[in-house]
Design brief:
single chain
C-alpha cells in the first residue's frame, strides 16, 4: 500500500506586518523536525500568495520571511489574494479594526479564514462574519494561537483530571511597556481608530486562561459568565485604555442549574508597564498551576499540591518545561489545515462560542469604561 500523502494547505497572507512575519516563519518550519512535540506528519503548509498595499512590500516580505520563494505570488492588493485559485485559506494580520472587512471579503471569495485576535472590533461584527462564513461554506477561526500550544493542552488535561479538585480562582495579566510618550499618536496601540489600547491588544491573553480554566471546565457545562465587571484608566494622549482590569465570575444562576462551577477570574492588561514574571495563577481546591510569563506563549508551568485538608501547606511541587522549533504560531496553522481537511466549519479547541464570549466580555468592559470607538470604526453595531 502506498504511503498516505500529507494534506497540503495553501496560505494567502493578508498584510506584511510583524505579526504576519511571525506566522509565516513558523508555518514554514518543517514539521518533521519536531514530530515528538508537534506530532505533525499529515500536513504541509505552503504559502502561495502575499498581499500588501503595494507589491514592493509583498516582494520584500517574501524575500525576508519566506526564503525568497519565487513560486509565491506577490500582490499589491488583498483582493488579488482572495481571487487567487491557488489559495485555500488566508491568514489576516491587519490592524484590529480592519479585520471585519478583510475577513468578509475573503469569506465572500470562498476562502477559509484564520483572523488575528481580537477577531473583530465588537461582537456584532463577529456574528455577521460567522453568518457569512456559514452561508459561504468556509471555515473561520480567530487566531488565538496560545490555545493550540502543547503546554496549554497539557494544563487543560491536568486541570480537568480531578487531581487538583474544582477551580476556584484565576489571576492573569499581560502587560508591556510600549514607551507611549515616544510613540506617534497614529501608532496602532494609541490610535482609537485602530482599536488601540490595552484591552483589545493584550486582553485576549489573560482572558484565554479564564476561558480555559473556567468556561471550558466540565462543571461549568458551557455556561456563560454570570457577571462581568471592568474598569479602565485611559491615557490622556489619545483616550485609549492604558490600564484595564476586569473580573469574570462564573456561578450557578439557580439552585437547579446544571452548572455547579463557582469561581472567579481577575484579569488585567497594561501598555505602560512590563509584565510580571508569573503570568497566570490558576487556583484549585487541592493545588495551584502557575503559568510562567509571557502567557501568550509560555514555555513552563509549575504545579503545587496541597496537603490534604490544608491549602496553606504545599507538599509537592513540579515544573514542566516545553521546547519546540519556532515560536509557537504553527500549532494554530495545523489546527486550521486539519479542520479544513476534515470538513469542519470551526475548531473544537477554539470554537466560535469562545470568540463570541471574548468579544461580548470586551464589549461590556468597554461599555463600563466608556471607551467608544470613533464613528465609522464599527462596521456592524
Amino acid at each position: 500500500m502506498a504511503p498516505v500523502q500529507p494534506f497540503v494547505f495553501r496560505w494567502g497572507i493578508i498584510s506584511t506586518g510583524w505579526i504576519a512575519s511571525c506566522f509565516v516563519k513558523d508555518a514554514l518550519v518543517d514539521p518533521k523536525t519536531q514530530v515528538t512535540i508537534r506530532g505533525v506528519h499529515d500536513l504541509v503548509h505552503k504559502v502561495t500568495a502575499v498581499g500588501s498595499r503595494n507589491v514592493d512590500s509583498a516582494n520584500k516580505f517574501i524575500a525576508e520571511y519566506a526564503g525568497g520563494d519565487s513560486s509565491i505570488k506577490a500582490y499589491g492588493s488583498y483582493a488579488e489574494v482572495y481571487a487567487d485559485s491557488n489559495v485555500d485559506g488566508v491568514y489576516i494580520g491587519t490592524p484590529h479594526t480592519f479585520h471585519y472587512e478583510n475577513a468578509l471579503d475573503a469569506i465572500k471569495a470562498k476562502k477559509h479564514v484564520l483572523c488575528e485576535k481580537p477577531v473583530t472590533s465588537n461582537a456584532a461584527e463577529l456574528r455577521s462574519l460567522l453568518a457569512a462564513a456559514k452561508e459561504n461554506g468556509v471555515f473561520f477561526m480567530e487566531a488565538l494561537w496560545t490555545r493550540f500550544q502543547p503546554l496549554v493542552k497539557e494544563v487543560k488535561k491536568l486541570a480537568e483530571s480531578g487531581v487538583l479538585g474544582e477551580p476556584l480562582a484565576v489571576y492573569a495579566d499581560l502587560s508591556g511597556d510600549f514607551g507611549l510618550d515616544k510613540l506617534p499618536k497614529t501608532h496602532r496601540i494609541l490610535d482609537p481608530a485602530l482599536g488601540g489600547g490595552a484591552l483589545l491588544d493584550l486582553g485576549p491573553y489573560p482572558l484565554i486562561w479564564a476561558i480555559l480554566a473556567l468556561y471550558e471546565h466540565p462543571s461549568n457545562k458551557g455556561e456563560n459568565p454570570s457577571n462581568v465587571t471592568g474598569t479602565m484608566l485611559k491615557t490622556p494622549l489619545t483616550g485609549v485604555d492604558r490600564s484595564t482590569s476586569f473580573v469574570v465570575t462564573f456561578s450557578p444562576t439557580s439552585p437547579s442549574a446544571a452548572n455547579t462551577l463557582s469561581a472567579q477570574a481577575v484579569l488585567s492588561c497594561n501598555i505602560n508597564v512590563a509584565g510580571n514574571q508569573t503570568g497566570a495563577l490558576l487556583r484549585y481546591e487541592r493545588g495551584t498551576i502557575e503559568i510562567a510569563a509571557p502567557i501568550c506563549c509560555p514555555k513552563s508551568f509549575t504545579v503545587q499540591y496541597f496537603q490534604e485538608g490544608n491549602s496553606a501547606t504545599v507538599v509537592r511541587e513540579e515544573t514542566r518545561n516545553f521546547e519546540y522549533v519556532g515560536s509557537g504560531w504553527h500549532f494554530q496553522a495545523d489546527e486550521v489545515a486539519r479542520c479544513v481537511r476534515d470538513g469542519k466549519a470551526e475548531s473544537e479547541l477554539w470554537g466560535h462560542d469562545k470568540s463570541l464570549l471574548e468579544m461580548g466580555i470586551f464589549d461590556e468592559v468597554r461599555r463600563q469604561g466608556n471607551y467608544k470607538f470613533p464613528p465609522g470604526v464599527e462596521k456592524v453595531v
